[in-house]
Amino acid sequence: MVRSLLVIASALLALLPAAALGADPTADMVEPTAVANFARMIRWSGVFTSILVILGAWIVLRLMNDFVERISQQFATRRLLLQKLATFTQFVIYVGTGLTVIMLSFRIDERVLAVIGGTIAVSVGFAIKDLVASFIAGIMIMLDRPFQVGDRVSFGGEYGDITSIGLRSVRMQTLDDNTVTIPNNKFLSDITSNGNYGALDMQVAMTFDIGVDQDVTQAREIVTEAAVSSRFVHLPKPIVVHVEQVILETYVTMRLKLKAYVLDTKHEKSFQTDVNLRVFEAFAARGILPPAMLHRGLAPLTARGSS
Q1: How high is the pLDDT of residue 37?
Q2: Which domain holds residue 89?
Q3: Which of 32, 184, 216, 299 might form a disulfide with 137, Cβ 3.0–4.6 angstroms?
Q4: Which has the closest alpha carbon to 306: 290, 288, 291, 284?
Q5: Is the pTM of this model over 0.85?
Q6: Which are the contacts of 20, defined by CB distance < 8 A and separation ≥ 6?
Q7: 143 lies in a domain?
Q8: How many structural domains comprise the chain?
Q9: How large a percentage of the chain has pLDDT more than 70?
Q10: CA–CA separation, 84 vs 68, rounded Å?
Q11: Mean of the pLDDT values across residues 70-80?
Q12: Distances (CA, A) of 100 to 53, 107, 124, 242
């Protein structure tokens, strides 16, 4: 609130005659008149009252916050509602205190109203700039439809289901059960990855690494069987396992990449866990080992288990 008063005072100074601020030789004669004009705009008796108003508002806010904190501890189920009411009340107190300070500290005339109106207009313009951009982006999202409610989307490092599409923002429910709010204008410049695009089923990719000296054909059959036999798999769509040799920094591996469809996006992680467990158990039973760098000097899993 004090900062707002300083901004208004600076704007009022800008309305003073140019001679008062320039390098005119007669500035010394004009300056007292300009200062006097500015002094007449201020109601000095109200400045002291404004300080008391600001102090009173600060005390009320402190007492209210302490009260809400104590009540929230006693009524935990109503904690969020109490915090919402406290936030709204704080906003009302801020606005009311600011208006009261302006009314008490300045003699409101046409010039003061023009300065205050201009200051408010500029402030509101900067404040709603992003809001207007998000509003326009929201309309474009609804027309272009890069995703829709229920889609599983990856955006800005977040991954989850779209729960709502508004004119200002999009809400996403992550797999960690967090609600993420994303302004619509962010989708205009960043890349969005949509996993299912309106369908229930979705492709899920999983990779498995084995040594170059292992039975790749048998490993491929195990991975395929693990996917086909999972209760979460969507069989109408193809199941493929690609094999490639990957050279890493210190070792070489045969990489098997499974691409299969889960019958519902909500079972994605369950599907991955089910297939991975089946594959690892089958690899251990058949003696299929990971790359040499990872198991050199170690006995096969089956041998260690039998011992």
Answers
A1: 62
A2: 2-130
A3: 184
A4: 284
A5: no
A6: 27, 30, 31, 33, 34, 35
A7: no
A8: 3
A9: 81
A10: 10
A11: 81
A12: 8, 12, 20, 72
